[in-house]
Amino acid sequence: MTEIWFDSAASLAQKIKARDISARDALEIFLARTERFNGALNAIIWQDNDAARARADAADAALAAGEYWGPLHGVPVTIKEAYDWVGSPSTWGDTSFANNYPPRNALAVDRLLNAGAVIFGKTNVPRHLADWQTFNSIYGTTNNPWDVTRVPGGSSGGSAAALAAGMTALEFGSDIGASIRNPAHYCGVYGHKPTWGVVRALGALWPGQLAEDDLCVIGPLARAADDLEIALRVMAGPDAQDGVGWALHLPQAQRRKLSDFKVGFMLTDPNCAQDDALTSQIQHTVDALARAGVKVVDGARPAIDTTEAFRTYLLFLRSATGAHATPEELSAHRARAGAAAPDDWSYQTMVDRGVSLSHHEWLKLNEKRYQMMQAWDVWFDDFDFLLCPTAASTAFLHDHEGVRAERTISINGRREPVVDQLFWAGYSNMALLPSTVAPAGLTRDGLPCGLQIVAKRFHDLSSIHFARLMADVVGGFQPPPGY
């Protein structure tokens, strides 16, 4: 029998509904797990245990009275620090926001509460949610439960680490540069980056911001694909303003078994050097899926130049993340971009160009994006998904020196730019596509590996369903040793 702390949120919800376990007892189990393991991991960085206990008691009283709050009734969960939750700070890991206590909940938090969940804490993030490792000057560093000398990913690193260690039943994260997908891969859990616009991010944006960022989405992380679907259904849909005029209808998954699927498979790309151990494990996983009947076409991909796609993504990414640059920073970016040679495609120059894009240049770039989106749509006429890596390697060693753009990681004994991994983040995200990361076993160095499942726009439920079926072949989530 699965220990309750590694149970899926869906299973735990059923046990609470059946009164096999009380919501209060379930909460106390997760609080005890947090007390035991969080000291070494620093994944959960803010808690309100008293309020959570009161909420759990109310959930039990409601069930006793015949009231059912929703599909997560009584389930103990945590949320990423950047989500507004009344009574808790939303600092984004920045000391200038240390006293930012929002007056209302994020829309997704209200929907989570309306589904019956018991929120008891928040999980750690990198400063400004802008790294593939998780550390900041307010809360410190989060470690990977598979190896505490390694990163848990970012920016939803605390989310993934807490799930992998069995300290929470479900998590809400965000993703613009694989910030859901990358931690899921590094920590061996599930993550889903929704189609852009499916889940409204009000209250999970830069403090005080109302307009949603280009590319950026919020979405769930979990230990089971079933939980991704439940959480997505809870989170998705228009906000109050948009709901006056439109409603969301996500297509149901049509394929029922693995042998019904035809997928493209893209294992490597020249834009990102890739670790052999990771490549080998992904190949092993895809081979197993092929033996289970999946029709795998190696090398099949949309008719898009991958280098052009990567450059387009980086410009959009840095245009979005540069929106909060100070006037002095913006001036410096513009000066460097203007001085750069036309054929300078270095990462720093791409950052400078992206931050300082004029509206005219952005519109031209957006047309290029829509041409690529059309190419993806044409490709999806023949294929259900594209299967590909999430990152260049498994979780790398902590490295807080210097600035992110100049850091490197070890790939097959060589030092490679850490930012090159953004290729796998952006290849699909540039086109606003959904993708699910599912556990794909362990590499030969004993670290978890995830497979990225890229689907057609709005076919989120299909990629989640494929991840669900994958578990029967590759095993799904497995706990880290010692937890």
Structure description:
Helix 8 (276-291) links the parallel strand 9 and strand 10 (295-298). This protein is α/β, with parallel strands linked by helices and 483 residues long. It has helices at residues 9-17, 23-41, 49-64, 107-114, 157-164, 181-187, 225-235, 276-291, 306-321, 327-339, 347-355, 359-379, 422-429, 460-474, and strands at residues 44-47, 76-80, 118-123, 135-136, 140-141, 171-175, 190-193, 217-222, 262-265, 295-298, 385-388, 408-411, 414-417, 435-442, 448-455. Helix 5 (157-164) packs parallel to helix 6 (181-187) and helix 9 (306-321) crosses helix 12. The strands form three sheets. The protein has an eleven-stranded mixed β-sheet, with helices on both faces.
